[in-house]
Design goal:
Blueprint lengths: L15 E2 L6 E2 L1 H15 L1 H8 L28 H11 L6 H6 L2 H4 L4 H6 L7 E3 L7 E2 L2 H13 L7 E5 L5 H14 L13 H11 L8 H6 L2 E5 L3 H4 L1 H12 L3 E5 L5 H4 E3 L4 H4 L4 E2 L3 E3 L6 H18 L7 H7 E2 L1 H9 L3 H8 L3 H12 L4 E5 L1 H4 L4 H14 L9 E4 L6 H6 L8 H11 L11 H9 L5 E5 L3 H4 L3 H9 L3 E6 L4 H4 L4 E6 L7 E3 L2 E3 L1 E4 L4 E5 L13 H13 L7 H6 L1 H11 L6 H6 L4 E2 L3 H5 L9 E2 L15 E6 L4 E2 L2 E2 L9 E2 L4 E4 L1 H7 L6 E6 L7 E10 L6 E5 L24 E7 L10 E2 L1
Parallel strand pairs: 2-8, 5-14, 6-7, 6-12, 7-10, 11-22, 12-13, 14-15, 15-16, 23-30, 27-29
Antiparallel strand pairs: 1-26, 3-4, 3-16, 8-9, 17-18, 19-20, 20-21, 23-31, 24-25, 27-30, 28-29, 28-31, 29-32
Bound molecules: ligand MGD (2 copies) and molybdenum atom.
Length: 774
């Protein structure tokens, strides 16, 4: 029986709260992943898809960018990968009647969860000026509307082209080409809200904005430090790699304000021991750090490394590496002398003994990997913190040798590939030169807007056409109310999407939804079945082949839609043959091979079973394409989050059952939450100090400079063993609390992990079950 879309929206009225878990996955996880899949897709479809996820002749799982091991297991996926696949491959579709029955105004108070459950979008729809409804429209007509707007702009910078990291390399390449042929570098993307701080820090210090490790390095490391990342939920297959690393003798240290289940223990569902229910301890040391304290912790460790060297000269630092490959050591060493232990303690909330223990672990390890994700990047000093990670690694030569390196763990499955293909508002001139030479035009050189600046430009009326290649910018960006009112000011908003979300409900004066083929689905064009390519977190590029028939014969591939819009807009301007690129994606890949560095012979290399690995200077040969040609040890001024008395530092995180703004269910199993999302996790002693009971309904006020407070009302306070002084709530709901201007220095990433808040007993009665925002 095909499941149905729900009519009623959801609330927290029946929320259940229990103690958090102390290990991840296990047999329970497999059960959790398969049950909804079989209910939604049926046994046959489920079996077909689940044995093809991440396989060499299969498709790339869209849930995260964790790399694939050389030897794939029969089931090379995780619970959350299975959820992502099920969510996309569901046979539930948005019926034509939906658009008649639901005005845009009526959809405004629907949750992301309800919107997503309406099913796959199967035909293009259009909202005319002044109308409160979408109505079905033909593809050619839809393309003509976009072309009319783009060709009518007074300045190409009045258009912006947002990308979310699920787009394939082929689609991304065409998309940035379309934007630059129009004449703008306005290519904001989800990365601006995600790992931008990583790119900024690493380009500056090691000359590449990507991980310097390969999959194999995890098995060869002595020590793996995981900072600001929750792999049990967001990169579950990483737990298998950590588990294997432990079997080879590696030690693991986790640094996190929350005692995340996957960082504490793990039951490997693919091993007999795990099957029988025994959890492996993951973290040998767990540092429950205060939010935003990582920079201080890293400086404190580096200081201890330098002290150890002073005590036993010539034995601690990798002098040969420092001399041959690095600069900046002297000023750094001088700066570290000033690190003040008391400030470190205040910033981190950690004891000297804990910091000494981590320093000793670092000094006793020859091969160290440091991994990080959003707990590091989404802070005001995120870029400096990552530079401190690089400093610490460089001191002992932990970059460019086996079992060691800097390993940012990416988010979206192809966010890294999209960047490689040119989706960035500030691509270097060398890339633009190659693009211009290949397509016989002069690409624009001025940098474009990023996500935050894009919202500002919309608000100021400077952007008239906004297009989204996937994603849900309005759900994902900070300052929800400002972002939504900004989007309403635009003339045309266009979304290329699989399923409904907030960015379809809040629109420009005219709006289009163009339904796309998902990654699980077979993509047949005139020349036959097509494959697309993606790049994972460790720079491995490979093909992804759709497996099941498309949800409807009306949906089109992202590649076809982008090229279709470009053709409708430009015709054959500059001699670019867009239809040829739709007919056969090999044509796109031939262009890629001539434009994108490292992608020579792209068709040949992506046709091999294993794909190929992009060149990586630091990893492959200790070459650093920085300003000085050396790896840069840098001096960064310490800062930590100042939090006045009676206030908490709020971070916004993902539950176990969500993918960014997509909500799979209202449960967060590992943290003990069922049937609800409007919760705020606070340490029990902080609750006591604030005079708030566990379970009480509270209003959350965010304080920012001299602006009026932002507030979310009607949240349930949950006593939780987070670090003292810290709190956590889920995004996207909590995004209203983050001011648009609260961004990381240099990278301009919203500070999603440090919002200064105060709690007050709620003015909304308990049990309303929906938050109220002002
Ligand atoms: N199932 C699933 N998979 C996903 C996603 C998803 O939503 N669902 N999203 C994908 C995307 S786009 C991304 S970017 C990644 C995100 O992967 P993560 O970065 O793991 O995601 P978050 O939920 O933001 O978790 C941030 C972690 O950092 C910790 N943290 C917060 N502040 C600090 C701090 O100041 N210091 C330290 N040391 N830790 C801190 C939090 O407690 C939390 O454990 O996952 C990707 N994979
Ligand atoms: N407060 C707070 N805000 C955050 C974060 C945080 O930790 N805290 N994290 C940030 C991060 S790390 C990120 S990456 C951003 C995410 O920002 P986005 O990438 O913009 O958001 P998603 O929720 O991943 O986008 C989901 C939508 O993508 C569409 N989609 C799904 N699959 C496909 C596909 O194959 N093709 C196309 N064309 N569309 C598809 C569906 O319509 C779905 O509704 O959010 C950021 N926002
Ligand atoms: Mo992300």
């Amino acid at each position: 029986m095909t499941p149905k879309a729900p009519e009623e929206d959801f609330s927290d009225a029946n929320i259940e709260v229990s103690a958090p878990k102390t290990h991840a996955v296990g047999i329970e996880g497999v059960f959790h992943s398969m049950e909804p899949a079989i209910t939604h897709m049926g046994l046959a479809r489920t079996a077909k898809l689940m044995t093809k996820i991440n396989h060499k002749d299969g498709f790339d799982c869209m849930s995260c960018a964790w790399p694939d091991p050389d030897h794939r297991k029969l089931a090379e996926f995780c619970e959350n990968g299975a959820k992502a696949v099920t969510w996309e491959a569901t046979p539930v579709v948005v019926e034509r009647s939906f658009w008649e029955e639901h005005s845009l105004t009526s959809l405004e108070d629907k949750t992301e969860y309800w919107l997503g459950l309406q099913g796959r979008i199967t035909e293009p729809v259009y909202k005319a000026p002044g109308s409160d409804h979408y109505t079905p429209i033909g593809w050619d007509e839809a393309y003509a509307i976009v072309a009319r707007h783009l060709n009518g702009l007074a300045d190409p910078n009045e258009a912006a082209f947002y990308t979310s990291g699920r787009a394939s390399n082929e689609a991304a390449f065409l998309y940035q080409l379309m934007s630059r042929v129009l004449g703008t570098n306005n290519l904001p993307d989800c990365s601006n809200m995600c790992h931008e701080s990583t790119g900024t820090a690493m380009l500056h210090t090691v000359g590449i904005g990507k991980s310097t490790v390969s999959y194999r390095d995890f098995g060869e490391a002595d020590l793996i430090i995981i900072m600001g990342q929750n792999p049990g939920t967001n990169h579950p297959r990483m737990l298998t790699a950590l588990h294997e690393a432990k079997q080879h003798g590696a030690k693991i240290v986790a640094v996190n304000p929350l005692p995340e289940a996957g960082l504490i223990g793990y039951k490997d569902p693919q091993s007999i021991k795990g099957y029988l229910g025994k959890a492996t301890q993951i973290a040998d040391q767990f540092l429950k750090i205060r939010s935003g304290g990582d920079m201080a912790l890293l400086q404190a460790i580096s200081k201890r490394v330098l002290e150890a060297e002073a005590a036993a000269p010539g034995t601690v630092l990798d002098h040969d590496f420092l001399e041959r490959h690095c600069d900046g050591f002297e000023s750094f060493a001088a700066h570290m002398e000033a690190v003040d232990d008391r400030e470190v303690e205040r910033a981190t909330g950690l004891s000297t003994a804990e910091i000494d223990e981590l320093a000793a672990r670092y000094l006793n390890s020859e091969r160290v990997i440091i991994c990080w994700a959003m707990g590091i990047t989404q802070h005001r000093k995120g870029v400096d913190t990552i530079r401190e990670i690089i400093n610490l690694l460089l001191l002992r030569g932990n970059i460019g040798k086996p079992g060691a390196g800097a390993s940012p763990i990416r988010g979206h499955s192809n966010v890294q590939g999209d960047r490689t293909m040119g989706v960035w508002e500030q691509m270097p001139d060398s890339f633009l030169d190659a693009l211009g030479a290949e397509f016989n035009f002069e690409p624009p050189r001025d940098h474009g807007v990023d996500a935050v600046h894009g919202i500002r430009a919309l608000d100021e009326g400077r952007i008239k056409v906004w297009m989204g290649l996937g994603g849900n910018l309005l759900g994902a960006i900070s300052d929800t109310h400002l972002a939504e009112s900004a989007m309403r000011k635009t003339e045309l908003s266009v979304q290329l999407s699989t399923k409904l979300n907030r960015s379809h409900v809040i629109t420009g004066e005219e709006a289009l939804i163009l339904p796309v083929l998902g990654r699980t689905e077979v993509d047949v064009q005139e020349s036959g079945p097509q494959y697309v390519t993606v790049e994972d977190s460790v720079c491995a590029v490979h093909a992804s082949h759709g497996q099941i028939p498309p949800v409807s014969d009306q949906v089109r591939s992202e590649t076809a839609i982008v090229a279709g819009i470009a053709h409708a807009t430009f015709g054959d301007r500059h001699g670019i043959d867009w239809p040829a690129m739709i007919r056969d994606y090999d044509v796109i890949r031939d262009h890629i091979s001539r434009v994108v560095p490292g992608c020579e012979s792209y068709n040949e290399k992506t046709r091999t079973r294993d794909g190929f690995v992009l060149p990586n200077g630091p990893r492959d040969s200790r070459t650093f394409a920085t300003e000085t040609g050396k790896a840069r040890i840098t001096v960064n001024e310490l800062e930590h989050v100042e939090c006045p008395p009676g206030r908490l530092i709020l971070q916004t995180v993902r539950s176990h059952d969500q993918f960014n703004t997509t909500i799979y269910s209202l449960n967060d199993r590992y943290r003990g939450i069922k049937k609800g999302r409007y919760v705020i996790f606070v340490h029990p002693d902080d609750l006591a100090d604030l005079g708030i009971e566990d379970g009480q309904t509270v209003d959350i006020f965010s304080e920012w400079k001299d602006e009026p407070d932002r507030v979310l009302r009607g949240f349930r306070a949950v006593a939780f063993p987070t670090a003292r002084g810290c709190a956590a709530a889920y995004f996207p709901e909590a995004n209203v609390l983050i001011p648009l201007d609260s961004t990381a220095l240099e990278s301009n990433t919203p500070v999603s992990k440090a919002v200064v808040i105060r709690l007050e007993p709620s003015s909304v009665p308990a049990g309303v079950g929906r938050p109220v925002t002002v």
